[in-house]
Amino acid sequence: MEQTVPETGHKRTAVDGPSGTRELPGAGKRETPYAEDEIIQDDSFSYKGYQVVRGEFFGHMYEPSLCFNKSKVYVNTGCLKRMQDVSYVQILVNAGEKKLVIRPAGEDEKDAFLWCSVKNNVRRPKQITCRVFFAKIVNLMSWNADYRYKLLGKVIRSGEEKLVVFDLTATEIYLRKAKDGEKPKTARRPVFPAEWENQFGLPVEEHRKLLQVNIFNGYTVFGIRDNKKTADNTSEKKDAGGTDNGKQC
Fold first, then answer.
1. What's the rounded Cα separation, in Å, for the pair 211 and 204?
2. Fewer CB within a 10 Å sphere, N or C end of the chain?
3. Among 172, 224, 200, 139, which Cα is nearest to 61's?
4. Measured between alpha carbons, how far is 246 from 239 in angstroms, rounded to an integer?
5. Which residues contact 101 (CB under 8 A, 6 or more apart)?
6. 157-185 pLDDT per residue, tens
7. Segment 19-68, tens digit of pLDDT
């Protein structure tokens, strides 16, 4: 009898061994079957009072993320891998709900831009200069324009569209400070919003609602390029040098 056993995001086939144990191919280990009668039925359990611990409190190198830094915006490789067939995107912002959405778009659609570079058939993140958009976001969120802000995103499906949703209020903040006579340096460790100090995360129901997105309700599509022709030329020069512009996110 074969059974699919998920392990670290991959599917592996478990084969029944002697005495009812299961052996994972390549693992060299046998796994004792879990007895269903060991699971306690508790219909009185409630999520009331529980908080979903924020992903920012864990290691998240491979999670989709978006960075605002020095009048630039860029995603990480995690975003590109989850949207493998997407080259052009639009950015939508809901100022009321403080949410930002990255939405796949056609090359010729208004306000669409190329969010990655391609070299040797490998897609890499690409920094996009956007002084006006950057200033508007900084003003909306009362951020410090000298700091770097990193947001973790979630990929959702809304109707027929696949979107990456970011909560602008949930940021990792990398301070930038300068010692006497030295250039400013960005901190390696982030700080978090002050209101997170006495909480693990959002209540369960609020957390569920966080990713509910209606892109026709309150969202504005932003054209983030300052000067498309100039920005494209600059990006092409950087890409020609083989720079992975999104590596810091």
1. 12
2. N
3. 172
4. 12
5. 91, 92, 93, 94, 163, 164, 165, 166, 213, 215, 219
6. 888 889 999 999 888 888 877 676 667 66
7. 455 555 555 566 666 667 677 777 777 778 887 777 666 766 788 999 99
The token duo for 43 is 């219909």
- With H, G, I as helix, E, B as strand and everything else as coil, classify residue 90: strand
Distance, in Å, from the CA atom of 144 to the CA atom of 140, rounded to the nearest integer, reads 11
Query: Is 7 within 8 Å of 31 (Cβ atoms)?
Result: no
Strand partners, 65: 152
Print burial letters for 75-97: b (CB count within 10 Å at least 16), e (below 16): bbbbbbebbeebbebbbbbbeeb
> Tokens standing for 163?
């979107």
Contact, 202 vs 51, CB < 8 A?
A: yes
Considering only CA atoms, which of 161, 130, 158, 156 is closest in space to residue 64? Answer: 156
Place of tokens 């609020």: 206
Comparing 222 with 116, the larger pLDDT belongs to 116
Question: pTM of this prediction?
Answer: 0.63
